[in-house]
Design a protein that fits this description.
Blueprint: E1 4-9, E2 18-21, E3 32-35, E4 49-53, E5 60-61, E6 65-66
Antiparallel strand pairs: 1-4, 2-3, 5-6
C-alpha cells in the first residue's frame, strides 16, 4: 500500500527502479512489484534490499481488503 521512494541492494551504491504490474488506477489493490537486479549487484547466497517508503509499512491482505 506504500509508495517506494528508493531501493538499494545492500552493499552497493546503485539505486534500483521497481516495475509495478497489475495495478488498476481505480482499485486500492497495489499490484505486484518487480525489482530487476543487475548481475554485478547479486550476492551468490542472498541479495538484501533496503527500501525507503513514503510512510510506515502498510499491507494489502486478501482480495482488495485493506488492513
Amino acid at each position: 500500500m506504500n509508495t517506494i521512494k528508493d531501493i538499494k541492494a545492500l552493499g552497493t551504491s546503485q539505486h534500483l527502479k521497481p516495475k509495478i504490474v497489475g495495478k488498476i488506477s481505480w482499485s486500492p489493490v497495489p499490484g505486484l512489484i518487480f525489482i530487476n537486479v543487475p548481475t554485478q549487484n547479486e550476492d551468490p547466497y542472498m541479495t538484501v534490499f533496503k527500501l525507503k517508503l513514503d510512510k510506515p509499512l502498510q499491507f494489502c491482505r486478501g482480495q482488495g481488503v485493506l488492513n
